[in-house]
Amino acid sequence: MSREVTAPRRVEVVATGVADTPEQAERMAAAGFGRQVLTPGPTWVDQDSKVAFDLVVGGDGGTDVDALLKQAFDRLAQAEPGLLDLRAAGFGVLVTVVLQLSDDDEVNPGFVLSTEQLAALARIGAEFQVAVYAV
């Protein structure tokens, strides 16, 4: 069995909802988002199937997190009309900065959200979180 290798520093944007919105697939794909159908597992509280649009911008331990955020927010700007339509259809949007830190990191993992980035999160009604892991 193979495991998917993920970048140790990344920005993930995920929009999930129960409504199937195939009309949004092309618009979201143009901004770099993938689409998948999530089938509920036996331990899910909510047993409805979900549709997810996701985008991941990542790099290694030498990647500046601010640069990753800029790339992700540039894509968010392209996808904003589609994300607003998804929000209107009941989708939730989550933006996550994932940092897997190690002694081998070449660049400080700190970052700052600009006022423009905060405004973009507010416009699309996104939640924001940071996940930090020591490896």
List the topology elements.
Layout: E1 9-17, H1 22-30, E2 34-38, E3 50-59, H2 65-88, E4 92-101, H3 115-124, E5 127-134
Parallel strand pairs: 4-5
Antiparallel strand pairs: 1-3, 1-4, 2-3
Shape annotation: globular
Query: What are the secondary-structure elements, in order, as H or E?
Result: EHEEHEHE
Helix proportion range: 25-40%
Widest β-sheet, arrangement of strands: 2-3-1-4-5
The averaged pLDDT comes out at 87
Q: In total, how many beta strands?
A: 5
Oligomer: single chain
C-alpha end-to-end distance: 22 Å
In this structure, how is the largest beta sheet organized?
A: 5 strands, mixed
Percent of residues in beta strands: 25-35%
Structural class by secondary-structure content: alpha+beta
Radius of gyration: 16 Å
Note the total helix count.
3
Low-confidence stretches: none
Explain what the structure shows:
- It is a single chain.
- This protein is α+β, with helices and mostly antiparallel strands.
- Helix content is 32%, strand content 31%.
- It has three helices and five strands; from the N terminus they run βαββαβαβ.
- The chain has helices spanning 22-30, 65-88, 115-124; strands at 9-17, 34-38, 50-59, 92-101, 127-134.
- The chain has a five-stranded mixed beta sheet with strand order 2-3-1-4-5, covered by helices on one side.
- β4 (92-101), α3 and β5 (127-134) form a beta-alpha-beta unit.
- The longest helix is centred in the middle third of the chain and has 24 residues, at 65-88.
- The radius of gyration is 16 Å and the shape is globular.
- The two termini are 22 Å apart.
